[in-house]
């Protein structure tokens, strides 16, 4: 069992709607040494892929992605969930939010995503895959390449992992949850 899995068992809280709350180490309070451990695991997995940039989505992916950027010594860009005033300067996609139950625009300015770059996408959670599919769409618009995807916590009982692996992406999740029990707060890994 790796460190993120241990922390999930010790400190994760199962909420209604198949949501796992990890606010004490990943989504609100942050444990830098844990985040750094995860970053180094992805570094070992992807170090020979010629990664030139890390791409994530605001807000909760940013801290994790920053440590990954440090490990690879490359810049980190996050998709912004903002109103876009100048559409011609930005790549834009629509993402449905699992936790907020609403659709929003995500954009990255064109100057930060260049043709031919090798991108590693990083996010905290993978549920149905909408956030990561949105980021893939932005990378594709820039004619850059998604060389890998690193997810801290994949909820294996939802469809995102199957979908992304089925599309041929090299998806590396550090914890894959098989089942979560709301009543007993029990979490099982694959
Ligand atoms: P997806 O787009 O794959 O359906 O959902 C992934 C996004 O929704 C992540 O970026 C994450 O912010 C949020 N998310 C999905 N499931 C959970 C969960 O169980 N716990 C938390 N904290 N966030 C989640």
How are the elements arranged and paired?
Blueprint: H1 3-11, E1 13-15, E2 19-21, H2 23-27, H3 32-46, E3 53-57, H4 62-72, E4 76-79, E5 90-97, E6 102-109, E7 118-126, H5 130-141, E8 145-155, H6 160-166, E9 171-181, E10 186-189
Parallel strand pairs: 3-4, 3-7, 7-8, 8-9
Antiparallel strand pairs: 1-2, 5-6, 9-10
Bound molecules: guanosine-5'-monophosphate (5GP).
Explain this structure:
It contains six helices and ten strands, in the order H-E-E-H-H-E-H-E-E-E-E-H-E-H-E-E. The chain has helices spanning about 5-10, 25, 30-45, 60-70, 130-140, 160-165; strands at about 15, 20, 55, 75-80, 90-95, 100-110, 120-125, 145-155, 170-180, 185-190. Helix content is about 30%, strand content about 35%. The structure holds guanosine-5'-monophosphate. Guanosine-5'-monophosphate (5GP) binds near residues 19, 21, 126, 129 and 131.
Main traits of this protein?
single chain; 190 residues; alpha/beta; 6-stranded mixed β-sheet; two-stranded antiparallel sheet; 6 helices; 10 strands; 35% strand; binds guanosine-5'-monophosphate
Total count of strands:
10
Ligand catalogue: guanosine-5'-monophosphate
- Sequence stretches where pLDDT stays below 50 over 5 or more residues: none
Coarse structural class: alpha/beta
Compressed to H and E, one letter per element, the order equals HEEHHEHEEEEHEHEE
What is the tally of helical segments?
6
Helicity level, as a percent range? 25-40%
* Shape by Cα distribution: globular
Question: Strand arrangement, largest sheet?
Answer: 4-3-7-8-9-10
> How many whole angstroms does the radius of gyration measure?
16 Å
Q: Give the overall pLDDT as a whole number.
A: 95
Percent of sequence in beta strands: 25-35%
Calculate the terminal CA-CA distance, rounded to whole Å: 11 Å
Largest sheet: 6 strands, mixed
